[in-house]
Amino acid sequence: MSGFTLYPAIDVRAGRVVRLRQGDYAQETLYGDDPRAVAQRYADAGAGWLHLVDLDAAREGGYTLAPLLAQVKATTTLRVQSGGGVRSADDMQRMLDAGADRVVLGSLAVRAPETVMAWLQTFGVERITVALDARCVDGRWLLPTEGWTNASGIELEHLLARYSDAGLRHVLCTDIDRDGMLAGPNVALYRDIVALLPDLQLQASGGVRDIGDIEAAREAGCAGAVLGRALLEGRFDLAQALREELAC
């Protein structure tokens, strides 16, 4: 598949680079105190995109990473998709003004899909990534919100179909139970989504361990993959992964 994109991820909480285990704020691992330096390392490896998450804002609202985002944009060539705490069109515009190339909409996209669908027309489909983070409950893929702390009862498949009809282009899907677990991405889930809605540009997220997992996501029809814990722990080389994926 051509055009496959790798998104090295930086999750920030209280100004530090962290990862959460299965979205649990009580299970945090610290990876550093300088997210800008991590972004620079990814840029130096050849990454074209960065996935930047404000974990504090994801739970409490009020995006706090505008200064960091502006620094990254000023000092690297990275394009950035960033999210956390977007509650209004003004919030989204402030993130775009700070330099976000795409704004990632998670909880709001589940709670108020009509609002986000309207924003697809207002801001453009290339400026929005809808992040639908799902957990399988009794055979149904359900979508919790607020940093995965509140159950919504909304099904992934139904909401994705609505967004596709509204013109959504970019969607990120995380199997919460694999996030931060180094268990491999949920390739079966991604195959099902691609088969159902082939026009979406699907980003795999959660569980990527190595270059083989990246290749599996690509072969499942994904347009990209978000790289989190394995990359932070040096389990594979980003520059090598980029070379291999760009050669496909």
Automatic annotation (TrEMBL):
SUPFAM superfamilies: Ribulose-phoshate binding barrel. It comes from the Bacteria. The gene is hisA. This is 1-(5-phosphoribosyl)-5-[(5-phosphoribosylamino)methylideneamino] imidazole-4-carboxamide isomerase. PANTHER family: 1-(5-PHOSPHORIBOSYL)-5-[(5-PHOSPHORIBOSYLAMINO)METHYLIDENEAMINO] IMIDAZOLE-4-CARBOXAMIDE ISOMERASE (PTHR43090:SF2). GO terms for molecular function: 1-(5-phosphoribosyl)-5-[(5-phosphoribosylamino)methylideneamino]imidazole-4-carboxamide isomerase activity. One of its GO terms (cellular component) is cytoplasm. The keyword Cytoplasm applies. Coiled coil: none annotated. Pathway: Amino-acid biosynthesis; L-histidine biosynthesis; L-histidine from 5-phospho-alpha-D-ribose 1-diphosphate: step 4/9. Keywords: Amino-acid biosynthesis, Cytoplasm, Histidine biosynthesis, Isomerase. It catalyses: 1-(5-phospho-beta-D-ribosyl)-5-[(5-phospho-beta-D-ribosylamino)methylideneamino]imidazole-4-carboxamide = 5-[(5-phospho-1-deoxy-D-ribulos-1-ylimino)methylamino]-1-(5-phospho-beta-D-ribosyl)imidazole-4-carboxamide. InterPro entries: Aldolase_TIM (IPR013785), His_biosynth (IPR006062), HisA/PriA (IPR023016), HisA_bact_arch (IPR006063), Isoase_HisA-like (IPR044524), RibuloseP-bd_barrel (IPR011060). The active site is at D11, D133. It is an enzyme of class 5 (isomerase). Belongs to the HisA/HisF family. Its EC number is 5.3.1.16.
